[in-house]
């Protein structure tokens, strides 16, 4: 006997749910980036490019992160649509501001690098999942990862991991070996969170 399952009714997120998700996801990501910055660490993707540029130039991380994302909005508009682009731009702006605001509320001058990197990886990965599931990304390589998952079916986490490894390889000259190792551990955890929890066809809404 064949059992026919009724079709799944897909309910889109409400506007207030998307708005709240942007705040939550951006907060988690900015917190993770703040922890990494506090130990002079690095992460992968375009955020990693922002870290390295900030260390070399002395500019604030939040400002650099916002600026390096600007060229990717063209791809976002062309391939992902205006709604995705607007949400992503909002998230990037919130992350950029958040990175600079965290020091006003908490002091992390005494922080174990490995703990900070692990916590940062989990926080950033979770924040990315929240943004992805509400039609946004953290900008940059995240836009590319989302596009390739949508158009090719490639898992966003694996795409992000490949790009991350390229950036971390470029970090060898600027980051101390132990801090770089901690950063790599955090980066692996970040991408595992995304790869396990964000697969094509597994999430509706």
Automatic annotation (TrEMBL):
It holds the Pfam family YitT_membrane. It is a multi-pass membrane protein. It comes from the Bacteria. The keyword Flavoprotein does not apply. It is found in: Cell membrane. Keywords: Cell membrane, Membrane, Transmembrane, Transmembrane helix. Its main location: membrane. PANTHER family: UPF0750 MEMBRANE PROTEIN YITT, UPF0750 MEMBRANE PROTEIN YITT-RELATED. This is YitT family protein.
């Amino acid at each position: 006997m064949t059992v026919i399952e009724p079709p799944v009714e897909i309910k889109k997120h409400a506007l207030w749910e998307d708005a709240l998700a942007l705040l939550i996801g951006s907060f988690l990501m900015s917190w993770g980036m703040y922890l990494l910055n506090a130990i002079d660490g690095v992460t992968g993707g375009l955020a990693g490019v922002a870290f390295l540029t900030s260390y070399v130039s002395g500019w604030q991380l939040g400002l650099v992160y916002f600026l390096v994302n600007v060229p990717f909005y063209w791809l976002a508009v062309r391939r992902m649509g205006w709604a995705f682009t607007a949400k992503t731009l909002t998230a990037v702006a919130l992350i950029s501001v958040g990175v600079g605001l965290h020091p006003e509320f908490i002091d992390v001058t005494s922080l174990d690098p490995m703990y900070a990197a692990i916590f940062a990886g989990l926080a950033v990965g979770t924040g990315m999942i929240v943004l992805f599931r509400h039609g946004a990304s953290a900008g940059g390589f995240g836009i590319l990862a989302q596009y390739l998952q949508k158009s090719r079916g490639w898992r966003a986490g694996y795409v992000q991991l490949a790009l991350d490894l390229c950036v971390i390889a470029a970090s060898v000259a600027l980051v101390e070996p132990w801090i770089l190792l901690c950063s790599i551990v955090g980066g692996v955890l970040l991408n595992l969170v995304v790869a396990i929890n964000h697969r094509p066809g597994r999430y509706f809404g």
